[in-house]
């Protein structure tokens, strides 16, 4: 013990020229000099003391001499082996490894080594663009940390973790070793930088997508199909996305840099998608593509001539950011898919037929005619395109109410400005479907593209206009994207809107319009005298059993009120991403029983459950007599079962007693690697009980013996942990006699 302390002191004195403050503050134990003398006496007489010290010198300094980023192995694990350039591409929130060759074997107890990762022009620790990765004993996950997992003479192998929120981009890595007194610092850089990307394979990343086939399609497929033509004459062309081609990743990061946004914001996919939607068009920021629709494409490439995104991005990069001529919607959409897939955000190219372009945020397509039914040319700004192409990308939306995670529409074609810039989205498909156009970003515009009514307005003698005709079904149909794993067309219209003509669809249109620039387009309800509320009894429904939700209506009028009500129940991820709708009901209610019970049957949702058992109830209805719209969403959690704790025997200080902890697995699946933590002040210290697996719906009882150490009212607390189930707790009051 003392000898090793001695070594340490030699090291601090010898490897750096000055005696450090650390050295001074270490009080030499009284026996120190005696032992020192004894050590000197042990040395062979021929070795003079000075030469021993200088011999130690070269051994003692710890320097990293080379770093092997193990690209082959890391790339395979990180699904980045397709990137063509010989660069190190990793995904955040996933362990990667490296071998470091040192000047001498590593000493876990005394040596100091850590990693620095820096990105962007001015790396700052506070902005997470300069990360100092500490060396830890045991990796915890979802944070920056590194651990030595193997030692081989002078080489050590590190496992490194990063959080699911890490800034993406190009990082310069430095391995830093410090001599124990902290005065001398040695650094070493690998020949490669690290490109850190989003990670749809990791639950801790908000672009997490839980289906392998979908990840293969929406992240890794580099060829796709883009639909065009017109309703009932749908055409398609193959598009080469080429997101892994040589130089494309560098171009994507160049595009982000050119946006002049701070790279500290590049950890958030909402931001990144918005930046990309602004940068793919050249308007206002010298982005990638110049849009042109005039038919005269001299001086550039005709938009229909492009076969894919690679030539466009290469041309942009080679010309140091001079915008490429020319693009139209499918070119903007194709390039956006390339850039986002390249950065690791699941993305697809989407075509909408009869796509409306609403210029005045009325959320209707307005056609103006004069007294003779002739169109008034200068007043007709809105248009309906045969087709329009944009993108859907997948992410959680922690910035919005739950239920809005999942697919988000993003449109890079320059059409209308958003906060002064030509960009559009991300707009949640759920919000568009429900007409909740007040949610970020640009829902009114996307809503109008897919679900606006075409309204014919006729000029009156006094110059005002009257609505004379409404077409409800013209806009937004056959919304198409390439199917997962095949070249078939997948119709996703239902994700953007309820069935044409259904009550829900009408409610959505009117809700959306009421937030637009002409809120009076639709007849306002004659009265708004009914209120609707969802109530949950007690602590809410329990995971694993049937339950009921109650919808309460209050009739504030003095007349009879009937309601038609549509309800939908969906399973959600804890991130707010919608997983699947499992129950849809439509009912006509006369209000007299002013409470409606919605049954929540465990059998119907048990196979869909994920994470923490989060569910969402969406209600859309209308009062028949007044046309009042009733709409609400209600998110709730299924309560996890408690641990039942039963003390056995009489609790007395110093006498052994037992508790019985019982638990029923509520899930239809086996719980893996279950661990219990138990503790109680005065009863027993914190302890970990490794239980193993619990079969589906299985009941287990665990007994724990301990000897109370303190008298009085005590609490025995237990919690159960496993990857499928969290938040399972139990507590028992135990009165311990002296
Ligand atoms: C697209 O492919 C065709 C056929 O291979 C080729 O002739 C054309 O030059 C390509 N377009 C561009 C812009 O390279
Ligand atoms: C396209 O949409 C129209 C209008 O909704 C519908 O009648 C038609 O069946 C759709 N065509 C296809 C191929 O889905
Ligand atoms: C609503 O109130 C009116 C007047 O009190 C009553 O006639 C009608 O039955 C009420 N409807 C319901 C559902 O309570
Ligand atoms: C409202 O409900 C009552 C009772 O069921 C029924 O007689 C009446 O026709 C309904 N009115 C409407 C407008 O549906």
UniProtKB/TrEMBL annotation:
InterPro entries: Ig-like_fold, Ig_E-set, Papain-like_cys_pep_sf, Transglutaminase, Transglutaminase-like, Transglutaminase-like_sf, Transglutaminase_animal, Transglutaminase_C. It catalyses: L-glutaminyl-[protein] + L-lysyl-[protein] = [protein]-L-lysyl-N(6)-5-L-glutamyl-[protein] + NH4(+). Gene3D superfamilies: Immunoglobulins, Transglutaminase-like. Its cofactor is Ca(2+). Keywords: Acyltransferase, Calcium, Keratinization, Lipoprotein, Membrane, Metal-binding, Palmitate, Phosphoprotein, Signal, Transferase. Its main location: membrane. Residues 321-414 form the Transglutaminase-like domain. It is a lipid-anchor. This is Protein-glutamine gamma-glutamyltransferase K. It comes from Oryzias latipes.
């Amino acid at each position: 013990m003392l000898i090793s302390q001695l070594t340490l002191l030699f090291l601090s004195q010898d490897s750096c020229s000055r005696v450090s403050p650390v050295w001074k503050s270490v009080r030499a134990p009284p026996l120190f000099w005696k032992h020192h003398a004894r050590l000197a006496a042990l040395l062979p007489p021929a070795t003079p003391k000075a030469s021993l010290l200088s011999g130690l010198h070269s051994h003692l300094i710890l320097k990293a001499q080379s770093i092997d980023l193990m690209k082959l192995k890391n790339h395979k694990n990180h699904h980045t082996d397709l990137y063509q350039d010989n660069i190190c591409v990793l995904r955040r929130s996933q362990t990667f490894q490296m071998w470091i060759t040192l000047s001498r074997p590593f000493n876990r107890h005394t040596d100091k080594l850590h990693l620095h990762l820096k990105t962007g022009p001015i790396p700052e620790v506070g902005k997470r663009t300069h990360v100092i990765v500490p060396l830890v004993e045991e990796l915890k996950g979802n944070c920056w940390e590194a651990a030595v997992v193997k030692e081989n003479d002078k080489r050590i192998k590190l496992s490194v973790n990063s959080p699911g929120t890490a800034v993406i981009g190009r990082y310069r890595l430095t391995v830093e070793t410090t001599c124990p007194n902290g005065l001398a610092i040695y650094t070493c850089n690998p020949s490669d930088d690290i490109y850190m990307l989003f990670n749809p394979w990791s639950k801790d990343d908000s672009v997490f997508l839980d289906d392998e086939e979908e990840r293969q399609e929406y992240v890794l497929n580099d060829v796709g199909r883009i639909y065009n033509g017109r309703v009932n004459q749908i055409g398609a062309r193959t598009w080469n996305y080429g997101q892994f081609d040589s130089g494309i990743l560098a171009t994507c990061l160049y595009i982000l840099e050119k946006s002049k946004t701070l790279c500290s914001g590049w950890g958030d996919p909402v931001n990144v998608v918005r930046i990309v939607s602004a940068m793919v068009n050249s308007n206002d920021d010298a982005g990638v593509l110049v849009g042109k629709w005039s038919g005269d494409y001299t001086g550039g490439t005709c938009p229909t001539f492009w076969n894919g995104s690679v030539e466009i991005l290469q041309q942009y990069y080679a010309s140091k950011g001079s915008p490429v001529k020319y693009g139209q919607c499918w070119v903007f959409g194709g390039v956006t898919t390339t850039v986002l897939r390249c950065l690791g955000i699941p993305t697809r190219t989407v075509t909408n037929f009869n796509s409306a372009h609403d210029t005045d945020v009325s959320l209707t397509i307005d056609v103006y005619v004069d007294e003779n039914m002739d169109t008034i040319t200068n007043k007709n700004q809105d248009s309906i395109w045969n087709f329009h192409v944009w993108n859907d990308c997948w992410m959680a939306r922690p910035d919005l109410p739950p239920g809005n995670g999942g697919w988000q529409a993003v449109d890079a074609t320059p059409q209308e400005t958003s906060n002064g810039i030509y960009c559009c989205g991300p707009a949640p498909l759920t919000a568009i479907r429900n007409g909740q156009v007040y949610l970020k970003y640009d829902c009114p515009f996307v809503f109008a593209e897919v679900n606006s009514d075409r309204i014919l307005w006729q000029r009156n003698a006094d110059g005002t206009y009257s609505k004379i005709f409404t077409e409800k079904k013209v806009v937004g149909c056959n919304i198409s994207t390439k199917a997962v794993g095949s070249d078939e067309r997948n119709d996703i219209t239902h994700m953007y809107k309820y069935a044409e003509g259904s009550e829900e669809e009408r409610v959505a249109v009117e809700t959306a319009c009421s937030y637009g620039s002409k809120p009076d387009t639709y007849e306002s309800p004659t009265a708004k005298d009914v209120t609707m509320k969802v109530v949950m009894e007690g602590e809410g429904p329990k995971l694993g059993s049937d339950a009921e939700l109650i919808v309460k209506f209050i009739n504030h009028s003095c007349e009879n009120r009937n309601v038609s009500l549509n309800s939908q129940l969906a399973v959600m991820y804890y991130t707010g991403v919608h997983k699947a709708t499992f129950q849809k009901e439509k009912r006509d209610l006369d209000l007299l029983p002013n409470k409606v019970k919605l049954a929540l049957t465990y059998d119907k949702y048990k196979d869909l459950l994920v994470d923490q058992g989060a569910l969402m109830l969406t209600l859309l209805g209308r009062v028949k007599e007044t046309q009042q719209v009733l709409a609400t969403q209600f998110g709730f959690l299924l309560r996890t079962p408690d641990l039942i704790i039963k003390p056995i025997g009489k609790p007395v200080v110093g006498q052994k007693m037992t508790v019985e902890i019982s638990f029923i697995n509520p899930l239809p699946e086996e719980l893996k690697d279950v661990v219990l933590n138990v503790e109680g002040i005065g009863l027993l210290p914190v302890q970990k009980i490794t239980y193993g697996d619990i079969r589906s719906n299985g009941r287990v009882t665990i007994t724990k013996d301990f000897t109370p150490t303190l008298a009085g009212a005590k609490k025995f607390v237990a919690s159960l942990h496993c990857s499928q189930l969290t938040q399972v707790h139990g507590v028992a009051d135990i009165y311990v006699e002296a």
